[in-house]
Write a structure and sequence with these properties.
By secondary structure, the chain is of the alpha+beta class. The chain contains 6 helices and 9 strands.
Length: 179
C-alpha cells in the first residue's frame, strides 16, 4: 500500500498508539480517515529528514515537514503549524506572516514549540497540535497521495495521505505557502 515506505515496516497507526505521544494519539482516535494512516518505528538518531530518507530509502519528495511559526503583533502571539514538502521552504515572512495577521513572524523557539505541542523537537507533526492553531498546508502537501511526516517523537514516522491530513481540525490550504 505504501510505495514511499522504502525499508520501513508501516503498521496501522491505531494499532500502535504507543509509537506516538499523547496529544497525537488523542487526535488520531477522532481523525476521519485514521484507518488510512500508518506508523513505523525508526532509529531516533535518524529522524532528521535527509538522514531518514537516505537510510530508509524513502523519497525526499514524499516527506513533509511541520514547522511551528510564531507571528507577533503588539503583545499578541499567534502560532501555526505549517506543512511543506521537504524539498521546499516555507514563506514565513510573507504568506504565513500575512495569514497570521502579524507584524513579525519567525520559527518558534525550540523550547516553546516543544512545550506548546507536547512533542519532541525534530518530530513535531500537525496531528495533535493545539486546537486553536491553524494548520497551514501547501497545495503540494494537500495533493500528495502519500506522505511521511513526523509522529510527535523522533523514534517513529507517520505515513498519511494528503487528503487525510486535510481532515485535521484547523487544516487549510495556503497557496504560495512554499517555494
Amino acid at each position: 500500500m505504501w510505495t514511499i515506505a522504502g525499508s520501513l515496516e508501516p503498521v496501522p497507526v491505531l494499532s500502535r498508539l504507543d509509537l506516538v505521544p499523547e496529544p497525537v494519539a488523542l487526535a488520531l482516535k477522532t481523525l476521519d480517515g485514521a484507518d488510512r494512516v500508518a506508523v513505523a518505528e525508526i532509529d531516533p538518531t535518524l529522524a532528521d529528514t535527509a538522514e531518514f530518507c537516505a537510510h530508509y530509502g524513502s523519497p525526499l519528495e514524499a516527506s513533509a515537514n511541520c514547522v511551528v511559526v510564531a507571528g507577533k503583533r503588539g503583545e499578541v502571539v499567534r502560532y501555526a503549524a505549517c506543512m511543506v514538502l521537504a524539498t521546499m521552504r516555507a514563506d514565513v515572512n510573507g504568506v504565513i506572516r500575512k495569514r497570521l495577521d502579524a507584524r513579525k513572524a519567525s520559527f518558534a523557539p525550540m523550547d516553546e514549540a516543544v512545550a506548546l505541542t507536547g512533542m519532541e523537537y525534530g518530530g513535531i507533526t500537525p496531528v495533535g497540535v493545539p486546537a486553536d492553531w491553524p494548520i497551514l498546508v501547501s497545495p503540494e502537501v494537500a495533493a500528495a497521495p502519500e506522505l511521511i511526516v513526523g509522529s510527535g517523537i523522533r523514534g517513529s514516522k507517520i505515513l498519511i495521505p494528503g487528503d487525510v491530513l486535510m481532515k485535521l481540525t484547523g487544516a487549510e490550504i495556503l497557496p504560495d505557502l512554499a517555494r
